[in-house]
Amino acid sequence: MLIGIDVGGTYTDGVVFNQSKVIATTKVPTDDNDIKSTVLQVLDNLLLQQDKSDISRIVLSTTVVTNLLATGKGERTALLLIPGYGLPADAYDISDDTFFLKGGIDFRGREIDQLKENELAGVCDNIVAAGIKRVAIVSKFGNRNDNLEKQVRDYIIKNYPQLSVITGSQISGKLNFPRRATTAYYTAMTSKEWNHFVDEIDKALAERGLDCEVHILKADGGTLALDISRDMPCETVFSGPAASTMGALALAQEGMNAVVLDIGGTTTDIALLIDGVPLYASKGASINQRYTHVNAFAVRSIALGGDSSITVNAGQVEVEAYRRDVAACFGGRSATVTDAFNCKFNLNIGNPELSATALEQLAGRAMSKEELGAAVVAIVVNRLGDAITSMFKEWENEPAYKVWEVINKRKFTLEQIIGIGAASRTIIPELADTMQVNYFIHQYADVANALGAAVARPTLVVNLHVDTQTKIYTLDPGGVRGSLENPRNFQLEDARQMARNHLQEVGKERGMASYTNESSFFMEEQFNMIGGWDRTGKLFDVGIQVTPGFIEEFKGVKA
Amino acid sequence: MKPTGILFFPAFDWAISPTHPEREERLLYTRDQIFEEGIMDLPQIKEYQPGLATARDIARVHFCVPDVEAQITEAHLVSAGSALRIADAYMQGEIKNGFAIIRPPGHHSMSVSHGNRGFCNINNEAIMIEYVRQKYGIKKVAIVDTDVHHGDGTQEIYYNDPDVLFISFHQDGRTLYPGSGHMEELGGPLAYGTTINLPLAPRTTDTGILYALEKLIMPLLEEFKPELIVNSAGQDNHYSDPLADMRFSAQGYARLNEILAPDIAVLEGGYSVQTALPYVNMGLIMAMAGIDYSNLREPDYVPERMRENPANLEYIDKMVKQQLQVFRQREEQIARNRKTRERFHHVHKQIFYDTDYIHEDQSIQLRLCPDCSGFRLIESTAQHRNGYHYRVYCVSIPANACASCQAEARSCYTDMSKNDRYDLVYLQDRVNNDCRSIDIKKDVEMVL
After folding, report:
1. ipTM score above 0.85
2. Which amino acids of B are annotated catalytic?
């Protein structure tokens, strides 16, 4: 039996799933100040009717790290940057405690400027004097050569043992120094709290006698073993939208161009499926308006849901970003989006008469309640429709760097809207009708996110960069750097093999060996380097991944 | 504040040949540098997706022999199309300025294209400018060619157009391909003075080039008052370029673009792929976006080694004064040319296509119209690499042609359309946006 728990902004959902069937569901209000207790309450509700020994896997999607970063309550962390030449220092407005060091690496991983040790000592003294205990060290092109980062790290470990240190090259092997710096900084500042959360969950599960696999859902829709997640808290951001996208995929299971709409009380999360595959954010997860190297689905959130308040000012109808109460049809104080749809389409939700009364009251003398309802429906449908259209325009307008990519550029033709979340049944039929496209809302659409978490499989991305002239390779994750044994005859196939081996090794460490056979290459680049008119070496960039998908035992959802 | 538009199209799957300077690797390190810097993530920058040019966009500028498809690959359509995309973004007010970092390059391509010369088949800037003039109705354009090689293709295309100010500074043609770009090349009789060349001595530094910029190029732009300023942005004046011998730096390129403030920059040459391009491209982006570039430099840059020779500054100053005078007296000169010349102005020239090893023979007639800047009739012959010897006749009507020139030029096209001396006869009518050609042997007219 599988358990999935999705911590949302307002509610936390849980499901027990077994052999294609949803066995139990539960829903409790989320306590943002004590997410651990919320999770355990959901777990205990689910366990009430189950035999603990039957539980084989628990997957959590949590907002612990997302909230920490959003509220800026992480641990105070110093960001030590080695930017070398290029953008000015004020381009790196990431941490209030940013320190700069001399030194430089270039795109080939060549060291062009060295560290200045006396400068380093001064900076470290300042960090300690400020009472800071955590440091993230990131150098430009540190992903190509982590030498400077390691020198600084080793110096700090030796001379300032009270400081905890991480380096950018450990966090990501991808190009983009500011994103690496941001991700390393966020990782360092959430590390303590996240580890505390993991400790408490571990303890609570032991107290309940649960001895099963426990995973965390990541922003890319894949899972990660709870103990492995200790080193990478940032991977757990935005797991809520990832859960709903995986839930939609689990319920729909068709390779279409679709849009997933998760319509809740006050927000709607929109994700795209291209031929049934979720679309990634091309610039990585954006946290606090900063791009990171965290792989995440491209999810757009708009402040609009079933409970969104309606106001009328001087005849002008507005759908507000806030919620005052539940819908009037459920006993709420005033008219909401749900009430407007309820009246206009005779949906018979809750007590429809209460919807009608609330609308009539709000409409006053300015208009009829029918006019008000129609106006609200039009606003909601337009806003969602525009957001969807602009999302696929954005996908169509992604940059391309090769001729064949431009020539073979595709247009996005929407084939289906997949609705999940409590308010989707209310809103989506009308939206789909306006957009002239089919829709699909499964009977378990309300718990799709928890279900998506329960059946998601682990994911893993490996990036390899090889330079046969400098004879150096770098592998990500883990910031592995080594020298090539046979650089002269090194070919693309060797690079593929190397990346595949790393995937299998890391897969084994992470307890996901069985999935690494289902990997696929997503990038294969090779360039000849020419000096004069001769080839002096080759550069390879190879990427291989286990894409988001479902665990082996998942065979669809039966009614 | 509007962002700066960047369109980065490195054509990682296109090369002239595996070890040619125009190979896949050319913008690889530029990619690494601009991606690692994360400059595309800044709010001052908006990245654009490549576009595709149409055969008609190309035929508005070029007479491709035998047809557009024969002269280009898909990469050329994307490269030219990308320039159009950035021009649209600029003209529609989405961006304050834009930089198309694209390849293949184009500034050596002339009106008639029999093949590749100087790594170019079609002229990206001219295609962009004619597109913009057609679509947005602007007239006056200035092109500043900052490539180390003389922009002979662009010069030839606009040699007779008084509404396009073409300025090129470059390493002296006596020491570098393509060998042209001398002080005396000043434009055709009716467009005299709107072609300005500044052949610089080898080893000219930041100081020399920026002196020419401030003393010559900026005053010319000030007086000409163009509606659009285009930088034909080669990067091979750099001190490390393997094909040339100048001493310009990344800081120099950044400063140049800060002062010049082009509306649109389009990448041309530059073949120091590791030592120059990553830094020069960063410099251009930063300068155009108004980002402080004082922390930018090449790892091997030693300013002390780049001191300008005072004698060279005097030499530049002399050229500057002479060209300013030419420019300021251009209208009087054009008026004299109109009176003294005959009905048609005849020119004969030979053009060599270094990449494809083609010799072209051209005979040009320019109508010396009293009311406009005339139209051109070009007869061109060349033996292509497949052994076939082409003879073509081209009629080019510029956007500012008067009604009688238009009528006369169109009748030239009709008259020649049965003349079996030629393989192909072309009409390029920019007034009516009409591009067509006739294959004489097949007796088929193709309208683009």
Report:
1. yes
2. 108
